[in-house]
Write a structure and sequence with these properties.
The chain is built from five helices and six strands. It is an alpha+beta fold and 144 residues long. The protein has a domain of 79 residues. The chain is elongated, with a radius of gyration of 26 Å.
Amino acid sequence: MSKSDTADKPKKKGNAVWQPLRDQLTLNKRDPDTHYRWVDTKQEIKNEQRLERGYFWVNKTTASQIPEKHSGVDKVAKEASDITGAKRVGELALMGLPMEIKEARDEYYQNETRDRTAAIKRNLQKDLDKTGLGMKADGRVVIE
């Protein structure tokens, strides 16, 4: 074929076959009460732990509902704990976590970090006081 023959062929129209991965992982319909996370399906133990901590597999059934709560513990529906129908892209599958659980977890770790940083500063100040030089442990603590 010559260049003029290929130039005369009509361009194929329709859906693109290939998309960058970031486009495939974009969620168009997000529930604002759910935190979403793409996870590696090969990490079965970690995913099992996530299910125990309140995550659920996002599929057609669970995409619009958050698992029921029963006496403060998430009671995950069978569909939400079964990966077979989960939204997937290659080796990744989509999990969701109710936002109130995520916020409570984030608050817990922020408090832990604040408390541990304060303990480091207190211990440092005790050591500085022992030197008798009148130095203060103020400012940021950087651990390398």
